[in-house]
Specification:
The chain is built from 22 helices and 16 strands. By secondary structure, it is of the alpha/beta class. It has a five-stranded mixed beta sheet with strand order 2-1-3-4-5, covered by helices on one side. Strands 13-12-16-14-15 form a five-stranded mixed beta sheet. It is globular. The protein starts with a strand and ends with a helix. The relative contact order is 0.10.
């Protein structure tokens, strides 16, 4: 009887040799005359253990990692195919504490299934959401999403159902569903993991959005730096269409929905929804003035639902299990779960799906195990390169949209980049302004000019050139950018700058008297 062995095909696993491990597994089994079925699954998100090899046994799936090609022969000698004891053995995969303490709702299949197997997807609750949606009126589907409390997981946290309701209420010859997969924030990878490890979940979510709003055409806008995600999505779309899950007469109904992948060119500002739409139309990716919002006049001037990957990928679960099931997770107005992504100077980097309300301290130490360097953690940037730097005094605040807004911070896309006590926050603040200057679309003055002046002012502060006056000027400049920028590119760049200045003034050379004067 063939024994199933899993070796991830996720980009993070490939980067540390998963393909070589898979070949070594196949060769070793062949040399020993052993019958194995090698499955290339998605990653579980325990990146410090990649490549993570799993084997199916009567006790469930047993994990080994991190495995290198040179370990394979010894693993077979130790009885790998029976879950035998070895220094790399981690025991039953589901019992690994990092995984066991999570609430995996959206990521329930991640690392469990073959990403391109429709049979695997169906066997793990796949297409249950769309089957239910097909039996509902569009208004009822939209209401289910509204009732779930699902908010945009790309960072803006706008209620997804309101966008859908707006598009549903408009008459148009053509409506669109656009997935923003231009995941450009530093330290984020949940979108990529979804596209590579569970693409049918995203496809199903987009189909449901089409059924809810009357849209028949969808586009996934993926950044060019994600070649594996693009290839997996294209193949998944081809298979889904061949099996009747996309295209004409969806699931035997009279509904149709077509889906295509479009590749972006690596512009950070194209993660902003209107710049993305400009790019999708073949134009230069610059931000549009609002109103009108994309729900009213979006792609090619037509009503358009535009949501992030995780937002759309969460919809099938909500439809399959009901709005109340999902809404019961979380705190306050932050309902459900978010895949938090630990990166930077962290011992155990990876993806942790938890209900809102978990604290930064829990993520850093209960999951991350502290810094990779072994030095004290000094600051954590939450929410991407435009997110605030949080000092230890704020690590016990529940991760929730409103609680973080009260701190002058954002939860954003759930990316967490960790810095130890060797980091210079004045340099990091300077980088935020420099990043904005490089990536700005240039349409509005506060962003285009403000970021350039910001770099100059921070340089003067660091060189102690009229330091107090320059700090006052920097604060005024940040105020102008926050309130005058056309989009979040310029409007949020002050978040990392001001948080660094407020919480780490010593890194800018500010004395106690300087702080009082500034």
């Amino acid at each position: 009887m063939s024994i199933t062995v899993y070796v991830p095909c996720d980009s993070a696993a490939l980067a540390v040799g998963a393909d070589r491990v898979a070949r070594a597994m196949a060769n070793e089994a062949a040399q020993r005359g052993l019958d194995i079925t090698l499955v290339r699954n998605g990653s579980r998100g325990l990146f410090w253990l990649e490549p993570l090899v799993e084997v199916t046994t009567p006790r469930g799936r047993i994990a080994y990692g991190p495995v290198q090609p040179g370990d394979v022969a010894a693993l077979f000698d130790a009885g790998l195919l029976a879950g035998g004891s070895h220094a790399l053995c981690l025991g039953p995969t589901e019992d690994i504490p990092y995984l066991k303490k999570q609430e995996r709702l959206t990521f329930a299949r991640m690392g469990v299934t073959d990403p391109l197997s429709l049979a695997d997807y169906k066997a793990h609750e796949g297409f249950m959401g769309v089957q239910r949606a097909l039996a509902m009126a569009p208004e009822a589907i939209v209401q289910e999403v509204l009732d779930s409390g699902l908010r945009g997981r790309g960072g803006a946290a706008f209620p997804a159902g309101i966008k859908w309701k707006t598009v549903l209420g408009l008459q148009a010859a053509q409506k669109y569903v656009v997935c923003n997969a231009d995941e450009g924030d530093s330290g984020t990878y949940s979108d990529r993991m979804t596209m590579e490890g569970d693409p049918y979940m995203l496809i199903e979510g987009m189909v449901i959005a089409g059924l809810a709003t009357g849209a028949t055409q969808g586009y996934v806008y993926v950044r060019s730096e994600y070649p594996h995600a693009i290839a997996t999505l294209n193949e998944a779309i081809r298979r889904a269409e061949a099996a009747g899950h996309l295209g004409r007469n969806l699931h035997g109904s009279n509904h149709s929905f077509w889906l295509e992948v479009r590749k972006g060119a690596g512009s950070y500002v194209c993660g902003e929804e209107t710049a993305l739409l400009e790019s999708l139309e073949g134009k230069r990716g610059i931000v549009r003035a609002k109103p009108p919002v994309p729900a009213i006049a979006g792609l090619f001037g037509q009503p358009t639902v535009i949501n992030n990957v995780i937002t759309l990928a969460t919809v099938p679960l909500i439809l399959a299990r009901g709005a109340r099931y999902y809404k019961d997770y979380g705190v306050g107005r932050s309902h459900g779960t978010l895949p938090f992504q630990l990166a930077g100077n962290i011992k155990q980097g990876g993806l942790i799906e938890k209900a809102f309300g978990v604290t930064l301290r829990e993520l850093l130490y209960d999951y991350g195990g502290g810094s990779a360097s072994g030095r004290p953690i000094k600051a954590v940037q939450v929410g991407g390169p435009l997110g605030a730097y949080l000092p230890e005094s704020q690590w016990d605040v529940p991760l929730d949209y409103e609680a973080y807004a009260a701190l002058g911070a954002v939860v954003g896309h759930g990316g967490l980049v960790v810095h130890d006590d060797s980091a210079d926050l004045s340099q990091l603040a300077r980088y935020a302004m420099e990043f904005c200057a490089i990536e700005s679309c240039g349409k509005c003055t506060p962003c285009r000019i403000g970021s350039t002046r910001g770099v100059e002012v921070i340089d003067k502060i660091r060189l102690n050139q009229n330091r107090v006056q320059q700090v006052q000027l920097l604060r005024d400049l940040c105020d102008t950018m926050v309130h005058g920028s056309l989009c979040a590119m310029g409007g949020m760049t002050p978040y990392p700058v001001l948080s660094a200045l407020n919480h780490y003034p010593q890194d800018f050379g500010l004395t106690a008297s300087d702080r009082e004067a500034a």
